[in-house]
Design a protein that fits this description.
Blueprint lengths: L5 E6 L8 H10 L3 E6 L9 H5 L21 H5 L4 E7 L1 H8 L6 H8 L4 E5 L3 H4 L2 H12 L3 E2 L14 H15 L1
Parallel strand pairs: 1-2, 1-3, 3-4, 4-5
Helix pairs in contact: 4-7
Amino acid sequence: MLDGKKIVVGITGCSMAIHALDVIAKLKKLHADVYVVMTENSTNFVTPLMVQRSVDHPIQIKAFDLPKSWEKGHRSLSQDTDLLLIAPASADILGKAANGIADDLLSTTIMSMRGPKIIAMHINNKMYNSPSVQRNVKTLIGDGFTFVDNGDKEHISRFPSVDQIIDTILRVLNAKD
């Protein structure tokens, strides 16, 4: 279903980061070519080694690390990429993306990516309902980002299921083709 599709998965620092492994496994099962960018904070929730074992390419964390195989950092990750998925997305990365802040590899990749961008967030409900996060969400929707609907109207900011994420990816890619 995703044969030949290059998908970059961005993992941010929150408690659901471990579930990115399930998303990656499902993408690979559907024959997607998966690349991963982790924020430094995400390494507190899921180890780079665990993530590396689930993909066929070196994972990237810092913008200026020497590469394990030569690629041009955020430019290569954002070029010829069919889709960028941020799962889980923290309030921090929403703020960076909505306000044009590119101070780490993931936020730089978000800024340089021209294809579809999907966000599967996991944010504390009180934090999510703060005016600044609400502004950021509205800005990102206006900028063309797609948010995965978790189906929970009471806790809209909880991490969606793997199936909900995959269904959103398929819908967005089919609309693009």
